[in-house]
């Protein structure tokens, strides 16, 4: 158990540092430290998502009995991925820090003092940081210990929610380099919208449907047949997904109707000190003009 946890602790930060150094020193890119940090963070998130989705597919497809069947990869990948959520809080902060240094953002929170930037980051990314903290402090012990080896099929489906993450990360990179006008951005936006809805929003009703079919009870009776802890957990996990999906829908509507090209630029959001804020570091934007993600 500890060896798998240690492997994840080394793998994700190590991959981030390796990617950052490679991107920063490639002569034909000419990227700054900030560019390399932001793209590397997206790259690591995408790789983690591909690994999680692959693990989830293997687990779910191997479980004939959706309650009793077990697969060794379930607990192993949970342990391996836990350090990712800790690392990603730091990676999101680094993305936020460097975005404040981009031209047009230098004076947004005044001088770049650690305490002030950190407070601004936590206000801006509160929901995503909270999501990551809950994943480590609540979902990890529940998945490894409280389940007592039951429901690996459902855990595998939860891993597959990450299928939408690579398109979210690519969308952020395209927006960072002002490629919103390209066909790639539109195709990626449509892909993100569809995969996010199927893999993160419809996922939770499907979990109830799958259990209802297994227990031979109607779908609407499932919430009354499972423990309150299951209902509470599903509700808390689904709520931010629905919120983020509404932001993606608003951004997609503007992207495909061309509203963003015909309207004047809107003022940037301001923090509590009255300073403008950059785009969200996690890939989900509260600005409705951009379909974005996470990490997630």
Summed up, what is this model?
This protein is mostly helical and 296 residues long. The protein contains twelve helices and no strands.
Structure description:
The chain has 296 residues and is an all-alpha fold. It is built from 12 helices and no strands. It starts with a helix and ends in a 34-residue tail after the last helix.
Q: Number of helical runs?
A: 12
Structural class: mainly alpha
Considering DSSP H and I runs of 4 or more, what fraction of the residues is helical?
A: 55-70%
Distance between the termini: 23 Å
Secondary-structure element order, N to C: HHHHHHHHHHHH
Instruction: Specify the overall morphology.
Output: globular
Poorly predicted tracts of residues: 260-296
Task: Please name the defining characteristics of this protein.
296 residues, 12 helices, globular
Task: Please write out the topology.
Blueprint: H1 2-25, H2 33-62, H3 72-99, H4 114-124, H5 126-146, H6 152-159, H7 165-176, H8 183-201, H9 203-215, H10 222-225, H11 228-257, H12 259-262
Helix pairs in contact: 1-2, 1-3, 2-3, 2-6, 2-7, 3-5, 7-8, 8-11
